[in-house]
Amino acid sequence: MRQVQVAGERPYEVLIGAGAQTRLGLVLEGTAKAVVVHAPPLAAAAGAAVETLQTAGIAAEAIVVPDGEAAKTAEVAAGAWEEFGRLGLTRTDAVVGLGGGAVTDLAGFLAATWARGVRVVQVPTSLLGMVDAAVGGKTGINTSAGKNLVGAFHPPAAVLADTDALAGLPDAEFRSGLAEVVKCGFIADPEILRLLTEDPTGRRDTEELIARAVQVKADAVGQDLRDTGVREFLNYGHTLGHAIERIEDFGRRHGEAVAVGMVFAAELAGQAGLLTPDEVERHRTLIDAMGLPVRCAGDWAALQAIMRVDKKARGATLRFVVLDGIGNPTILTDPDQAWLDAAWAAVTGGTA
Ligand SMILES: NC(=O)c1ccc[n+]([C@@H]2O[C@H](COP(=O)([O-])OP(=O)(O)OC[C@H]3O[C@@H](n4cnc5c(N)ncnc54)[C@H](O)[C@@H]3O)[C@@H](O)[C@H]2O)c1
Ligand SMILES: O=C(O)C(=O)C[C@@H](O)[C@H](O)[C@H](O)COP(=O)(O)O
Ligand SMILES: [Zn+2]
User: Fold this and answer.
1) Is 182 found in the same domain as 147?
2) Ligand 2 binding pocket includes 253 (Cβ within 6 Å)
3) Do 16 and 2 contact (CB within 8 A), yes or no?
4) Is the dihedral of CA 298, 300, 301, 305 positive or negative?
5) Which bound ligand lies closest to the C-alpha atom of 230?
6) Burial class of 151 by CB neighbour count within 10 A (0 to 12, 13 to 18, 19+)
7) Mean pLDDT of the 34-42 span
8) CA of 159 relative to ligand 1 center, distance in Å
9) How many folded domains does the chain comprise?
């Protein structure tokens, strides 16, 4: 079992490996009650989690929420709060978020808000959840104005990334998770880029890639939980990515939107003279080889309007995470309109 320590006010561990979920009883030892939040496809794993907790003497119940992005709504949160009340969940009890990133984002948000904060243990079951969503304490739901616009910083008490869960994960979801892995490679860890270049499926080195991506995330959130400095670099590819998700009504996988967003950000950095044409091309070639999208279509004016309410924006000023060389992220503020248009042309298939 690999372990990554996340620093902060209350440091915690991310356990990565086969069977990690069975540590649930141990990490919540002494807790009176726990509620396992999950979506229908993960009912069997949630049942096993409830059993593990009960064996450890913890009164555990499961509550079911809709699958995928449909879980991240105010209505679903309100329904879950009602359930917590019915179950008599108190401040010394705990929430367990078991599922993909959508469920762990929701479960974290429920834990942050219930009784003004109860512990959450995250049990991510998708690759994306393991390498990103379950780690770092960003929790939240979507609104009609945009992605993750309502939320709280609420770090988990522990993260159990049980790689056995990946056996049931559809290939397209695995690839979506790989987008966040390659993001970590581009912003901080060239070894990730090397491993993915050798095996773009990510299947040969899965555990190594998870541990490396979690380490990149832990390094950033350990220094900057509240996203005012280095943590912003984890948003590489997300400014356009989130706008695409929003404009497509959250119908596209998060990692797929981020993949196009990274190619866009690379093109933008190319326009700004921060990346060489080869480095821009390296993004496109690797992301494409991984089976992720490098192009998209859409209403450019509408996408730009959405990007202006991105959480990184300040006033009406657009801010993008870009690379000043591979592995060296920086913020590009208020880029020239001509650069934005050229980068957009490059991802829509036109020539920049
Ligand atoms: N909080 C953060 O820091 C952070 C970071 C990255 C992404 N996110 C959020 O995470 C969400 C995306 O997460 P995701 O990609 O996991 O999507 P998801 O949660 O929608 O899961 C994708 C699908 O895979 C299924 N699934 C999950 N695990 C499975 C398994 N082991 N076997 C079979 N099916 C399984 C789910 O039920 C769902 O249908 C987005 O809402 C994104 O905004 C948050
Ligand atoms: O943890 C972070 O910080 C990230 O930016 C990681 C992203 O991969 C993730 O999608 C996050 O939810 C985006 O945060 P947001 O603040 O832009 O909603
Ligand atoms: Zn993301």
Assistant:
1) no
2) no
3) yes
4) positive
5) 2
6) buried
7) 98
8) 15
9) 2
pLDDT of residue 312: 66
350 pLDDT band, cuts 50/70/90, is: low
Do residues 129 and 104 lie in contact, with contact meaning Cβ atoms separated by under 8 Å? yes
Band the pLDDT of 351: cuts 50, 70, 90.
very low
Instruction: Give tens-digit pLDDT for 87-100.
Output: 999 999 999 999 99
- Give residue 129 CA to ligand 1 midpoint distance, Å: 6
Q: Which residue has the tokens 């920049």?
A: 352
Do the annotations mark residue 43 as ligand-binding? no
Chain CA centroid to CA 125, Å? 12
Is 138 part of any known ligand binding site?
Answer: yes
- Considering 153, 168, 183, which residue would you say is the last residue of a domain? 168
Kindly tell me if the per-residue pLDDT of 67 is higher than 80.
yes
Q: For the stretch 90-114, what's the b/e string if a residue is b when 16 or more beta carbons lie within 10 angstroms of its beta carbon?
A: eeebbbbbbbbbbbbbbbbbbbbbb
Q: Which of the listed residues 144, 168, 192 is the one where a domain comes to its end? A: 168
CA of 129 to the centre of ligand 3 (A): 10
Q: Is 138 close to ligand 2, i.e. is its CB under 6 Å away?
A: yes
Closest residue by Cα to atom 5, ligand 1, is 133
Name all residues whose Cβ lies below 6 A of ligand 1. Answer: 39, 41-42, 67-69, 72, 99-103, 105, 125-126, 128-129, 132-133, 136, 138, 148, 165, 168-169, 173, 176, 180, 254
CA of 258 to the centre of ligand 3 (A): 7
Q: Are residues 320 and 180 in the same domain?
A: yes
pLDDT digits (tens, 9 = 90+) for 284-339: 999 999 999 999 999 999 999 999 877 666 677 899 999 999 999 999 999 999 99
Q: Tell whether 351 is in a known binding site.
A: no
ipTM value, please give it: 0.98
* 134-156: pLDDT as tens digits: 999 999 999 887 789 899 999 99
